[in-house]
Amino acid sequence: MENGDEMNPFELRHQVRSGAFRQPTAGYCGDYAQANLVILPAQHASDFLLFCQRNPRACPLLAVGEPGQWQIDRLGADLDLRSDTPGYNIYRHGELAEQVHNLYEVWRDDLVAFAIGCSFSFEHMLMAAGIPLRHIEQRRNVAMYRTNIANAAAGPFAGQMVVSMRPMKAADAIRAVQITSRFPAVHGAPVHLGDPALIGIADISRPDYGDPVEIMPDEIPVFWACGVTPQEAIRHARLPLVITHQPGYMLVTDILNASLAAF
Hints:
Layout: H1 9-18, E1 32-41, H2 45-54, E2 61-64, E3 88-92, E4 95-100, E5 111-117, H3 120-128, H4 134-137, E6 143-150, E7 160-168, H5 170-180, E8 192-193, E9 220-225, H6 229-237, E10 242-245, E11 251-256
Antiparallel strand pairs: 1-5, 1-10, 1-11, 2-5, 3-4, 3-10, 6-7, 7-9, 8-9
């Protein structure tokens, strides 16, 4: 198995499609944007689109498909939304019903796919600036937490924001704010730094999604809005069927991160 930047997105997607790659995608194909997925019936697509527009920090849209479309040209060549993500969650009536490696058996002609920007995309830029990221060093999934920050509701979609956390020294945190502020399409600047209790996180050692990472005495936790937020909105909406990626198991696209910079 090749690692990190030794594969390009096309090669990584084919490793996923063949079943050879079944792990979190943090640290892979660092020059290219990774995407969260939400796939739902067309009758609910307009409400979910409005939810994304009202919550752009957590749900920055990279692309939206047509009903039944499992290949979106903007996202990549020879890309299949039914098979090119290392893991999928299937929600039924707001509950996680199943985790699968492809969607061939559940795909329908009325399903609409939303690709949402991911903070894994800016991690390559942080590391290039000399900012260490412990979950990548330890080959873990990033830690993600439910918060008390309310989403702006749209139709049946509401719930609270989910955040991803990376521990950093104060100077690195300042630099991380400067770097990520230029990339609103992949969540932009952090939404919170410091005391996790202020955003409703009772125990930083127990993430709701992903893996825990140690915070050293000279570090502070830095929190970004997370593309797992729609999964909380889906739980709230309790629709008969919604499909997402498994948190941390992203779709790696052909979109260059540099093309997403806001000047």
